[in-house]
Design brief:
single chain; 484 residues; alpha/beta; 2,3-Dihydroxybiphenyl 1,2-Dioxygenase, domain 1; Rossmann fold; 2 domains; eight-stranded mixed β-sheet; 12 helices; 28% strand
């Protein structure tokens, strides 16, 4: 018997890419690091039709050319419900299509993106209530709202990153409509978290209903929780690895109370994770790409906002516990003896605002003559040496190594993650400059240790790669710590 498809949208976070998981597709956050993913299509044996209902809206798919995509869909016999054209009052080109099971998809014209399955639209009965729930319970950010009085609806875009780079949740409120038929065709979204127990507590605290208590799935180690939002839309929260695996091999003494520099910081996520985990005195992230620096500041604001929400949640939970404890004489006595707010006040007394520790700056480290205001105790260069090498050749690489040595205090640490030569081969055609430099490179990655020790002047090197064994693909390159 034929079976039909039932969408299940799921979520996990690291920087870039749609994850394919047993749970579905994912949107991506922090403190509890989370990510929203959309991608799982489920099929139940013997079921040939589902009721989509009136509450589920559509999926969004980013494509580079909407018109060409629509022509291809038509050629395959697909149904187009809105021809390509700019959105009213805007420039983004969109189109709408419908698959054989009746699910609607919005095609959005964008440049290349790591998350082409980029949004899901759900209708809600109280927009402010929904925004508050996803902000407080899941740490999402309200990216924007748009009201359309002509068609009597308002939308709110929620997510963990800019719309053009991250998957987002589109909440739609139709004037005067407070309830929808949800049918049985839509299953869930998933928001990955690094602590399912704290997530479940947050959901309960801010108006959601837990439908599966947090805990491990039978037979495997993955922990999971599930809940309903105030409108009854289901979310699952599987555990996922939130921390960049490279952070696990770094030593606390290299960063705690130290001034640090991260060269080629990309979107700044690992820079912020290092600052938070190791309590740096300061850390400056540099990148040549102004767009990535904008992303880094966005993520910094996001980390701060989620951290503040986490502190408020902890305070609210503590107050609730005190109030409940006061209902019995025994609890009251215990609390008065121990001091109910001692742990909270102790925890916050020595904390510093992340923006006082972390900052970012656009800079071409190789060619910049801008003087640094200070020397550093630790300098990182993670997965950057290849790009320096391909863009500025051997001279640019040696210049960078020399500048790093001069910027380090005596006894300072230089942490290098060089890409292998095979990676150079794969990227040699990204530009004419890269292609020319690739052909003339004499110093390959296997020579870097000798250059840094014998030519630049570092006194010793430590291979810290072993701690990365078993981590995910793409983060199993060697990492070295050079001591000045």
């Amino acid at each position: 018997m034929a079976s039909t498809i039932r969408p299940s949208l799921s979520s996990f976070r690291f920087s870039g890419g749609v994850s394919s998981t047993p749970y579905g597709v994912s949107l991506s956050p922090f403190n509890l690091t989370r990510r929203l993913i959309f991608s799982h299509l489920g099929s139940n044996y013997g079921v040939d039709k589902y009721d989509i209902g009136t509450g589920f809206g559509h999926f969004g798919i980013a494509v580079e050319d909407v018109a060409k995509t629509v022509e291809l869909i038509k050629a395959k016999g697909g149904k187009v419900t809105r021809e390509p054209g700019a959105v009213k009052g805007g420039k983004t080109v969109i189109a709408f299509i419908e698959d054989p099971d009746g699910y609607k998809f919005e095609l959005l014209e964008r440049g290349p993106t790591p998350e082409p399955l980029c949004q899901v639209m759900l209708r809600v009965g109280d927009l402010d209530r929904s925004i508050n729930f996803y902000e407080k319970a899941f740490g999402m950010e309200l990216l924007r709202t748009r009201d359309n009085p002509e068609y009597k609806y308002t939308i709110a875009m929620m997510g963990y990153g800019p719309e053009d780079k991250s998957a987002v949740l589109e909440l739609t409120y139709n004037y005067g409509v407070t309830d929808y038929d949800k049918g049985n065709g839509y299953a869930q979204i998933a928001i990955g978290t690094d602590d399912v127990y704290k997530t479940a507590e947050a959901v309960k605290l801010f108006g959601g209903k837990i439908t599966r208590e947090p805990g491990p799935l039978p037979g495997i180690n993955t922990k999971i929780t599930a809940c309903l939002d105030p409108d009854g839309w289901k979310t699952i929260g599987p555990n996922h690895e939130a921390e960049d695996p490279r952070v696990k091999v770094l030593k606390k003494e290299w960063f705690e109370g130290k001034d640090c520099l991260d060269i080629g910081c990309n979107s700044g996520v690992i820079t912020i994770q290092i600052a938070k985990k190791f309590n740096c005195k300061s850390i400056l992230g540099l990148d040549i790409d102004s767009g990535l620096i904008e992303d880094a500041f966005w993520y910094l604001r996001k980390f701060k906002k989620t951290e503040s929400a986490g502190k408020k949640q902890a305070k609210d939970t503590s107050v609730k516990a005190v109030q409940e404890g006061n209902s019995s004489e025994q609890s009251t006595t215990a609390l008065s003896n121990e001091g109910p707010n001692e742990s909270l006040s102790h925890h916050s007394s020595g904390e510093r605002d992340l923006s006082d520790i972390v900052t970012f700056r656009r800079e071409n480290f190789v060619q910049s003559h801008r003087p640094h205001e200070k020397c550093y105790d630790t300098i990182l260069c993670l997965s950057v040496s290849k790009w320096i090498h391909l863009n500025w050749g051997d001279d640019g690489l040696i210049t960078s190594f020399s500048k790093i040595w001069k910027l380090l205090h005596p006894g300072g640490i230089f942490i290098l993650e060089p890409q292998p030569w095979e990676s150079y081969e794969k990227n040699r055609k990204v530009s004419e400059t890269a292609s020319n430099n690739y052909r003339s490179i004499m110093f390959r990655p296997e020579h870097f240790q000798d250059i840094l020790l014998d030519k630049i002047g570092f006194r010793k090197v430590e291979d810290i790669t072993s701690g990365l064994s078993g981590t995910r693909a793409g983060f199993d390159r060697p990492i070295f710590a050079f001591y000045k």
